[in-house]
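Support reply, case 0932

Customer input (verbatim):
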Amino acid sequence: MSDSATPATPVTFPPAFLWGAATSAYQIEGAVREDGRTPSIWDTFSHTPGKTIGGDTGDIAVDHYHRYRDDVALMADLNLGAYRFSVSWSRVQPTGRGPAVQRGLDFYRKLVDELLAKDIKPAVTLYHWDLPQELEDAGGWPERDTAYRFAEYAQIMGEALGDRVENWITLNEPWCSAFLGYASGVHAPGRTDPAAALKAAHHLNLAHGLGTKALRSVMPARNQISLSLNTSVVRPLSPGDPADRAAARKIDDLSGGIFHGPILHGAYPETLLEATSSLTDWSCIEDGDLDLIHQPLDALGLNYYTPTLVSAADPDAKGPRADGHGASEHSPWPAADDVAFHQSPGDQTEMGWSVDPTGLHELIMRYQREAPGLPLYITENGAAYDDKPDADGTVHDPERVAYLHGHLSAVRRAIADGADVRGYYLWSLLDNFEWAYGYDKRFGAVYVDYVTQQRTPKSSALWYARAAKSGELPEPEGV
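Our regenerated output:
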């Protein structure tokens, strides 16, 4: 399948389509000790020697906390119609429980006001991986109480911003929170206990359900509540091989079914429960949990970067696990040591991820079938490249322009094929702290000089601004 629009595919996006960009709090805000904020698990993790490239931390990041007005003005210059940002839980509720700190809430109130003044729709993500450290000290996501603390926090945010923010996302990529945080340990809090990771996944699901109920109890009915999943697009190396197909099913259950099963359908996949029975009896699922998790959604967010290629493992084969999720002796895939991961074909980004827009089309159409009638948003899609300013200070990133053109063309094809995709959030607005990779990988459409904090829109930002203004995709060569 071509990664550009075919003659049968309309080139114009629907008039109401949202053209947005996304960020997350710990990656851009900085100001980690200001106005009552206390450490999150990412503060602790990034300050632990050896956990991030170069020992980088988000202490300053790109100083968005102090530069948000300029950043919002930049969004307006780039014709953005929507901006997805996350809230730092420990900036609002420093211990993860109890009353809110109004100075922390005031930052988000001011940010929302600034966005609305520029006619940019805010989309709030409540949890983008930065659990208050005090809650991790009490056991973190493997403990059931954390889900109830999240619901309390969600209610605080709904009361503070629900009158002005219509689009809400409970959790961002709970797979990463559970399995990179508690199984492989490449993300905060850096634990390596696969059974705890499975408990964490269930309690994140429970947090979504409880948080959704809490938001609905305090917000206008017009507001939309969703969550963002990074379900893998899993492909068997040899589609005709039953063992490879079984391997793909196992990884699909662990990346997607473990979340969309209970959230969309009210049940975990039986194949998942059976495959993981050597690690847990799933007694963490209490009576009534599945009903709590299975709350009606107003939309679903999908995050996509690259497909996943797997086969049954050769027991004699040795070498690193090529799943694209960082280097660790511990797997983020519980009870899946019989699965081998392979590099997908095609060009690669700086992350080593293959560029394949057909995977985004496949993902969209899968959820069009999985949840018919539920509006979809692409809440993250983008690429890291080795961007550098030219002698005159301009930043040309033709690879990213081609990446965005290909993937937005895939979104347009999916809409033409009947998918109800309402918007697209480019990841990311700004170069930023890229988790364990520190400042080594640049995903931004806007270049940031980390010494001076100067922002420079790259070619991709200017290309995307043209697309957002016209509702059509300029040819990549036109930049």
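We compared this against your earlier run and they match. Two observations from our side: DSSP finds 15 helices and 13 strands in the chain. The longest strand covers residues 121-127. Please reopen the case if you see a mismatch on your end.
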